[in-house]
Amino acid sequence: MIHSFNPPARTLMGPGPADVHPRVLAALARPTIGHLDPAFVAMMDELKTLLRGAFRTDNALTMPVSAPGSAGMEICFVNLVEPGDTVVVCINGVFGSRMKENVERAGATAVMVEGTWGRAVDPEQVERTLAAHPEARILAFVHAETSTGACSDAQALAEIARRHDCLTICDAVTSLGGSPLEVDAWGLDAVYSGSQKCLSCTPGLAPVTFSERALDKVRARTTKVNSWFLDLNLIMGYWSGEQKRSYHHTAPVNALYALHESLVMLAEEGIEQAWARHAHHHQALRAGLEALGLELIVPEAERLPQLNAVAVPAGIDEAEVRTRLLARYNLELGAGLGSLAGKVWRIGLMGYSSRPENILLCLGALGTELGALGHQTDTGAALAAARAVLGTD
Question: Residue 219 pLDDT > 80, yes or no?
Fold first, then answer.
């Protein structure tokens, strides 16, 4: 007989989802009300305001898509890209490749800027590509590449795009709430993210924001959007306006309670303070990893604080280490993807997972298990190095 599912209590330090804050879990359990209930509609308006603060934008169309971050990506591409368009796509990891797939499925031509995995997108390479393709009208890139831990200069890329009369589509799934992201100040046009990473919320929602320039292109389309559910012309009627909504779909009511609570917590902490927390905890983790003799693959100036790609030492089976950590410590780390499969661990410090106790648990467990597998380590030195940065020694 199948019984109720009771999941084990894990510490999530992989590429996502991250640990969900207890306040967010409690919000999920609040009474469900109708998705057109006046009280719920008022909460939706607050959600939009809170998301604008997280994105640092005044964009009127800023909302959560009722689906995961991948749907956030797709809503940008299916609405902004038409058959026959040319889109320049920057690829420096797995998620840039997914952008290319979206462009091609929309019947458009993707021109690739191929970068190195583990490095930021090269602005000069983008400049040359756009100069060689004056017909391009969109530049797509990943701000925070989750597969490698590399952070690209979104401000520089957006400035290049504007000079070439291009809109930007930006993947901020791993950066929103965890590292500086300035939608308005940087001139970004369509940005999408996910609820399950630095926002400390559950998976399943995709915050997005669209500039007026982007919406002008949507309104000027000569072809139908190739998705009914993700058609902004329909969704705008559901999320636009104050205290009134046209029916589009049944919103995930309790999941939106959770996102609202997570954004309230982010506002209480302060967005800049949240960025600083992630950066500080990254420095502590880095100090401990280096004391264990481990290396981060991304150069420091291009490194995400909340997603750390760590080179696996020679002779170590990375999957066995992850298996041991999960079985013995209830600690989840991430594996490498694509060309980095088997070569790195991805250690997340996102949202509620970005806490001193998690850093010390990770370093202690990793040092112990690497030592057991024959890799020379000094776990005590690693913990001392991290505590020195954290100020808890």
Answer: yes
Q: Is the pLDDT of residue 393 over 80?
A: no
pLDDT tens-digit series, residues 109-161: 999 999 999 999 999 999 999 999 999 999 999 999 999 999 999 999 999 99
CA distances from 75 to 62, 102, 110 (A): 13, 10, 17
- For 89-116, the pLDDT digits (tens) are 999 999 999 999 999 999 999 999 999 9
Confidence of residue 245 (pLDDT cuts 50, 70, 90): low
**Cα–Cα distance list, 349 to 27, 40, 110 (Å):** 23, 32, 33
Please check the confidence at residue 324 and state whether its pLDDT lies above 90: yes
- Helices 94-105 and 69-80 sit at what angle, rounded to 10 degrees? 40
Q: How far apart are CA 175 and CA 335, in angstroms?
A: 19
Q: For residue 59, what are the CA distances in angstroms to 50, 64, 115, 163, 366?
A: 12, 13, 31, 21, 44
- Strands in 307-311's sheet, in edge-to-edge order, are 307-311, 344-348, 334-335
**CA 169, 14, 286, 342 torsion: positive or negative?**
negative
Q: What is the set of domains in the chain, with CATH numbers?
A: 22-267 (3.40.640.10), 271-390 (3.90.1150.10)
* DSSP letter assigned to residue 300: G
Q: How far apart are CA 220 and CA 218, in angstroms?
A: 5
* Structural contact between residues 53 and 273, judged by C-beta atoms closer than 8 angstroms: no
**Is the backbone peptide bond immediately before 17 cis, with ω within 30 degrees of 0?**
yes
Residue 346 is labelled as binding a ligand: yes
Q: What's the CA gap between 54 and 260, in Å, rounded? A: 12
Task: Give the CA distances from residue 347 to residues 46, 149, 307, 353, in Å, rounded to whole numbers and listed in that order.
Answer: 33, 9, 6, 10
Contact yes or no for 275/70 (Cβ under 8 A): no
CB of 349 closer than 8 Å to CB of 359: yes
